[in-house]
Amino acid sequence: MIDSLKMRFGLLGRNISYSFSKGHFTEKFKDSIFEGYTYENFDIEDINYFTELIKNNPDLRGLNVTIPYKEAILPFLDKLSKKASVIGAVNTIKFTKSGKLKGYNTDYYGFKKSLEPLLQPHHTKALILGTGGAAKGVAFALDELGILYTFVSRENKEKTIRYDLLNETVFENHTIIINTTPLGTSPNTDNFPTIPYEFFTEKHIAYDLIYNPAETVFLKKAKKHGAQTKNGLEMLILQAEKAWRIWNK
Fold it and tell me: Choosing from 22, 28, 55, 70, which is the catalytic residue?
């Protein structure tokens, strides 16, 4: 008899009815070998509700974490994997056999594996639009790939450039542009990062972590100027399956 107390998984976030993860794992669990497995959304307004959530759901085995809690969740965890500690953001939580909460980051893995096939010798520098938890995972992946990067922010921060300072020279020197912001996510599909799209060329990769819609305004505008484009769907699938392996190891 299957022990149902070990088969509950879920996604932690805010305003996550659109979530990829629930659909992905619900489809996965249709296979008869996963009888009794469930995946649900835990949509909380404030990260401080997390403690109560865990208390009320003692049979959870694993959680994914999404916007806006990838960094805010850290103080609530008992330990972090080495890579999650370096990245400073968590998107996967494992409930260990001893009852501890251990945080991992599988975003970097999904991004890295999905970007690698697109890379050419001239792809040596990248711009990362945004500075949140997702951006940190992307930066870690670029480090592993040996690609230099600069964050793009509205504010003056270390290792960043402001949006209003982006110009043709910056684009010539950075041939990978990655959107890690939520701008353009359904239902607000008309939104997009304010950057000089006219400086994209056929040498550029425009990568959007957003997967819904499949082609954001960011990607459409970049493609218009010849850039190779990719959305975040493959990244999400890869990071989800990596999380699955972590939960079951």
Answer: 70
